[in-house]
Design goal:
It holds the Pfam family ABC_tran. This is Ribose transport system ATP-binding protein. Keywords: ATP-binding, Nucleotide-binding, Repeat, Transport. The chain is α/β, with parallel strands linked by helices. It has 17 helices and 23 strands. A six-stranded mixed sheet has the order 6-7-8-3-9-10, sandwiched between helices. α4 crosses α5, α6 crosses α17 and α16 runs antiparallel to α17. The structure holds adenosine-5'-triphosphate. The site of adenosine-5'-triphosphate has 20 residues, from β2, α1 and α13.
Length: about 550
């Protein structure tokens, strides 16, 4: 790792910054320093204040009076986004805000402005060359004429970073990356790290927000941990173990968080004593060619596969959210007929979607209203809503998942991203499903809440629910699955159980699938995947994750 550049003052000094929302102190006297050429991890549980701090830096929130932010030693005018931009602060949010139907060059022009000819028309050629030049600066080329919706997630992330770098001349500046790997499959994370390291070597510092603990030691030089809006620790990453960092993040909670990897549990191969909860033969849907699965009550089946393998379409296909057919689709309640949302729901097959996108949650509704939205009939009495009953159920889920703030009446929009995710998972578990498909259940969720969600999945399974977890985060699969199915190009290519459920074996099975199509695959990706599967950092199975 390149040592941080020294000799100049800090690129960023946050001093005594506080932010109070009505009824909520989100930041309390926060100090944070980033030196030039340094990757600084900003860590903290869901709701600890990371996004609020970033929004203060971006000029989106005005902090309480009293504190200051210095950029390269000079005070920054707070609450003015254009001033933050002028002073070299750049932000890449999780939602990259790229427009799918537009090309890469058009997206760049849309945000950083059009290039005009002398007669005032748009100069498309210059816009394309400018985009190529921005890409060159991070040493990666993406087809500037490709539509963003056709790009891989990693290329989209890279376009987002390249766009943010506009106007930063060569040396200096601070790039704030908010959970940039949350939407990336494991084998593509290395490419993003290479871009960040390359920028660091060229003097662009980085404030890096992540919940993935394995990334912290791999990528960052220094760190700050926020807990409940306060800085609890900062320092050089190399001076602390992963467990120590987790301890800072979770505080007293840490000691309560333990879990047994699911791989250690016995596999039932889909046929438990009570018979299968779901049998599907030759499921076909967009990106799913032929998928067969039998899952028993109480079993947790994990589905792994790189982006585009079909993994992400299994949930929508099984619940009829996308058009799907199968030679056989049978639950414990009998054969299903057409695979439609209504039929699958009647059979108790539900899906917890991976994104908190439109339709999955209503931001202006309270936590309680969101939690009970899919089960309103249960709380209706003679046409009236049993509000106390609704609230009791919500309170119990809020406590079980540790939703913060622990206030079931709070409008969802005031919750942090990870806490919204917990409410979303709870909403579907509250429907008492017999089969639940969870896509990326811990995306954006902190290390403590991830463990809580893993425990909850195991708990739900122990109550006889068949669980199918599709995830790009191998830790999810290792923590909960009794069997892991690996997919490639819409078909199952491997099934792992027992002791095979560990990172190395899953990655090799995924790489085996990739290997089989190596003639058309990107060999760099494959090499990267293999390289990562050999790195001991990624395979530290002795250490408990939480
Ligand atoms: N606009 C707002 N109004 C009221 N409270 C808010 C607002 N924005 C954030 N909060 C509260 O401030 C606290 C910090 O939230 P923040 O979004 O900064 O957390 P975070 O660390 O980014 O969490 P996550 O990892 O889940 O994204 C939370 O309790 C949140 O509910």
């Amino acid at each position: 790792m390149t040592p941080p550049v020294t000799g100049r003052g800090p690129v960023l000094s946050v001093r005594d910054i506080s932010k109070t929302f009505p009824g909520q102190r989100a930041l309390s006297s926060v100090d944070l320093t980033v030196q030039p050429g340094e990757v600084h991890a900003l860590l903290g549980h869901n709701g600890s204040g990371k996004s609020t701090l970033i929004k203060v830096l971006a000029g989106f929130h005005v902090p309480d009076a009293g504190g200051e932010v210095l950029v390269n030693g000079e005070p920054l005018e707070l609450g003015a986004p254009s001033r933050s931009h002028e002073r070299g602060l750049r932000f890449v949010h999780q939602d990259l805000a790229l427009l799918g139907p537009m090309t890469v060059a058009e997206n760049m022009a849309f945000t950083i402005g059009h290039v005009r000819t002398r007669v005032g028309t748009i100069d498309r050629d210059s816009e394309r060359s400018r985009t190529t030049a921005l890409m060159d600066r991070i040493g990666i080329q993406v087809d500037v004429d490709a539509k963003v919706e056709d790009l891989d997630p990693i290329d989209r992330a890279i376009v987002g970073i390249a766009r943010a770098l506009d106007g930063l001349d060569g040396n200096g500046g601070l790039l704030v990356l908010d959970e940039p790997t949350a939407a990336l499959p494991p084998h593509e994370v290395g490419r993003l790290f290479a871009v960040v390291r390359d920028l660091r070597d060229r003097g662009v510092s980085c404030l890096y927000v992540t919940h993935r603990m394995d990334e912290v030691h791999e990528l960052t030089d220094t760190f700050t941990v926020l807990r409940d809006g306060e800085v609890v620790q900062s320092g050089r990453t190399a001076d602390y173990s992963g467990d120590e960092l987790i301890g800072f993040i979770l505080g007293a909670q840490a000691r309560q968080q333990t879990r047994t990897p699911g791989g250690a549990r016995e596999s039932t191969d889909g046929e438990g004593r009570a018979g299968a909860a779901l049998v599907v033969e030759n499921l076909r849907a967009a990106r799913v060619e032929r998928f067969s699965l039998s899952v028993a009550p109480g079993e947790v089946v994990g589905i792994a596969g790189v982006m585009g393998s079909g993994r992400e379409f299994i949930g929508p296909a099984l619940t009829g959210a996308v058009s799907a057919t199968a030679d056989r689709y049978q639950t414990s309640r009998g054969p299903i007929g057409a695979i439609s949302p209504r039929n699958t729901r009647r059979h108790g097959v539900v899906m917890v979607p991976g994104t908190r996108g439109p339709g999955s949650m209503i931001e202006s509704f309270s936590v309680t209203e969101n939690l009970t939205f899919a089960t309103l009939d249960r709380y209706s009495r003679l046409g009236w809503l049993d509000r106390p009953g609704e609230r009791r159920a919500a309170t119990s889920w809020v406590q079980r998942f540790g939703v913060r703030p622990a206030d079931p009446d709070r409008a969802l929009r005031y919750l942090s991203g990870g806490n919204k995710q917990k409410v979303l998972v709870a909403k579907w578990l509250n429907t008492d499903p017999s089969v639940v498909v969870m896509d990326e259940p811990t995306a954006g969720v902190d290390v403590g809440a991830s463990a809580a969600i893993h425990d909850m999945i195991v708990d739900v399974a122990a109550q006889g629910v068949a669980c199918i977890v599709t995830s790009s985060d191998l830790d999810d699969l290792i923590a909960v699955a009794t069997r892991v199915i690996v997919m490639d190009r819409g078909v199952v290519t491997a099934t792992l159980s027992g002791e095979q459920i560990e990172k190395n074996s899953i990655l090799s099975a995924m790489s085996g699938a990739t290997d089989a199509r190596a003639d058309r695959a990107d060999r760099a990706d494959l090499a990267d995947l293999m390289e990562r599967s050999r790195q001991p950092d990624h395979l530290d199975l002795e250490e408990p994750h939480v």
